[in-house]
Amino acid sequence: MSGSAAWKAGPGGTISETVTSAKTISGTFSVSVGDKADVSLGVLTDEAKIDISASVTGSTTVTTGHTYSHNITSNKYGNLQYGSYGYKFSWKKWVTSGSCTTTTQASGTAILPTTTTGWKYWETSS
């Protein structure tokens, strides 16, 4: 798991944790009107520009979350971790020589994060 938080409790009993997430959604609406108006007083014509503008902004916060609870075996410690699951993969880089012999030049493993999150529980002796 990556980007995670971890908790520990015990020995024995119950471990319970809650994770919440809050997001704010907001929007703005605005109107602006510019127009030419002819004002005629018989002899002269003036052009007047009228600007009208209005703006309305609103926002709301939405909180979501969930709680995980697990009984801990007597004389053991319960561990909880919350975070992002990932894909684990192995890689190798091969080199082929002039005699057609292939050898491994480098290798390793990597974990790529995903958008899936959740709880992992395990027990330890201390």
Can you put this structure into words, describing what you see?
The protein is mostly beta strands. It has one domain (2-24, 55-122). Helix content is 0%, strand content 85%. It has no helices and five strands. The protein has strands at residues 2-9, 13-40, 45-72, 77-96, 102-124. The strands form two sheets. The protein has a three-stranded antiparallel beta sheet, with no helix packed on it. Strands 2-3 form a two-stranded antiparallel ribbon. The two termini are 22 Å apart. Mean pLDDT is 74; it is low at 37-46.
Largest beta-sheet characterization? 3 strands, antiparallel
Helix amount, in percent? Answer: under 10%
Number of DSSP helices? 0
Count of strand segments: 5
The oligomeric state of the chains shown is single chain
Distance between the termini: 22 Å
Order of helices and strands: EEEEE
Low-confidence stretches: 37-46
Structural class: mainly beta
Strand order of the largest sheet: 1-4-5
Mean of all residue-level pLDDT scores: 74
Q: How many structural domains does the protein architecture include?
A: 1
Using only C-alpha atoms, the radius of gyration works out to 32 Å
General shape: flat
What portion of residues belong to β-strands? over 45%
Keywords summarizing the entry:
126 residues, two-stranded antiparallel ribbon, 0% helix, mainly beta
In short:
This protein has no helices and five strands. The chain is mainly beta and 126 residues long. The chain is flat, with a radius of gyration of 32 Å.
